[in-house]
């Protein structure tokens, strides 16, 4: 396993429709080269063997860059490959089950949408980061409940890293960073761009400049 949770930066999330299997590792390498601090393997397809093979390749890429690989939804896959952690939504395993399976060193992220009460409960449980959103219309998951940027500031008192997700681009990310997001989680706004490395670098620089523009 790589080190624990990064403090701030770009959280790159893969998408099997956007990134064909023969391009996904290269695309993630580009994101890492541009400064992505954490990667999530998100793949809803039912082929366990294929998903395991891709996840192993992504883990190797993340290890080359010393960055954590998080597996979406699938605690068993995270455990099988020795990933750094798992991301869980309301319909997935509980963070407590994941902690039991993955151990004390694993990074466990939870979806909170716009729900500060859920965030408070999760912060006193097994979560290592709290994810809020979607903040903008999302090409990947338009059906995700929407959230207002205020929730990021309100969640600051909970003491865990706050992840913002949903329709984020280099243009709209600064408002979320100013509102308190520690990590910006992006699919389309990163992996559908012509130059993934340059886009990742732009996201990364927003943190260095305090998103002042
Ligand atoms: C960083 C991050 N935040 C939120 C999600 C969404 O998780 P979930 O609500 O379980 O939805 P799916 O991604 O499983 O469709 C996420 N994956 N990552
Ligand atoms: C998985 C998920 N959960 C809330 S929005 C979203 C999709 C994020 O993808 P994009 O960055 O393309 O909007
Ligand atoms: Mg999920």
Automatic annotation (TrEMBL):
| Any one Pfam family match given in the protein's UniProt record, by short name | TMP-TENI
Mind telling me which CDD domains this protein's record contains? TMP_TenI (cd00564)
Catalysed reactions, as listed in the record? 2-[(2R,5Z)-2-carboxy-4-methylthiazol-5(2H)-ylidene]ethyl phosphate + 4-amino-2-methyl-5-(diphosphooxymethyl)pyrimidine + 2 H(+) = thiamine phosphate + CO2 + diphosphate; 2-(2-carboxy-4-methylthiazol-5-yl)ethyl phosphate + 4-amino-2-methyl-5-(diphosphooxymethyl)pyrimidine + 2 H(+) = thiamine phosphate + CO2 + diphosphate; 4-methyl-5-(2-phosphooxyethyl)-thiazole + 4-amino-2-methyl-5-(diphosphooxymethyl)pyrimidine + H(+) = thiamine phosphate + diphosphate
Pull one GO CC term from this UniProt entry: cytoplasm
| InterPro entries in the record | Aldolase_TIM (IPR013785), ThiamineP_synth_sf (IPR036206), ThiamineP_synth_TenI (IPR022998), TMP_synthase (IPR034291)
Q: In which pathway does it act?
A: Cofactor biosynthesis; thiamine diphosphate biosynthesis; thiamine phosphate from 4-amino-2-methyl-5-diphosphomethylpyrimidine and 4-methyl-5-(2-phosphoethyl)-thiazole: step 1/1
Keywords from the named record: Magnesium, Metal-binding, Thiamine biosynthesis, Transferase
Its biological purpose? Condenses 4-methyl-5-(beta-hydroxyethyl)thiazole monophosphate (THZ-P) and 2-methyl-4-amino-5-hydroxymethyl pyrimidine pyrophosphate (HMP-PP) to form thiamine monophosphate (TMP).
Q: What is this protein called?
A: Thiamine-phosphate synthase
């Amino acid at each position: 396993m790589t080190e624990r949770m990064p403090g701030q930066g770009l959280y790159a999330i893969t998408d099997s429709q956007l990134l064909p299997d023969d391009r996904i590792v290269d695309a993630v390498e580009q994101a890492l080269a541009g400064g992505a601090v954490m990667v999530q393997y998100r793949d809803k397809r039912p082929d366990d063997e294929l998903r395991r093979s891709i996840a192993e390749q992504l883990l190797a890429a993340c290890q080359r860059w010393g960055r954590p690989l998080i597996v979406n939804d699938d605690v068993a896959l995270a455990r099988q490959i020795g990933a750094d952690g798992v991301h869980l939504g309301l319909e997935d395993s509980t963070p407590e089950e994941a902690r039991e399976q993955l151990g004390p060193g694993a990074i466990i992220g939870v979806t909170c949408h716009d729900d500060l009460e859920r965030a408070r409960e999760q912060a006193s449980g097994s979560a290592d980061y709290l994810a809020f959103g979607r903040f903008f219309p999302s090409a990947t998951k338009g059906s995700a409940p929407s959230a207002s940027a205020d929730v990021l500031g309100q969640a600051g008192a909970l003491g865990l890293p706050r992840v913002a997700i949903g329709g984020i681009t280099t243009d709209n990310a600064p408002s979320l960073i100013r509102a308190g997001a520690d990590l910006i989680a992006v699919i389309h706004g990163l992996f559908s761009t012509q130059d993934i490395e340059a886009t990742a670098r732009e996201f990364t620089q927003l943190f260095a400049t305090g998103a002042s523009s």
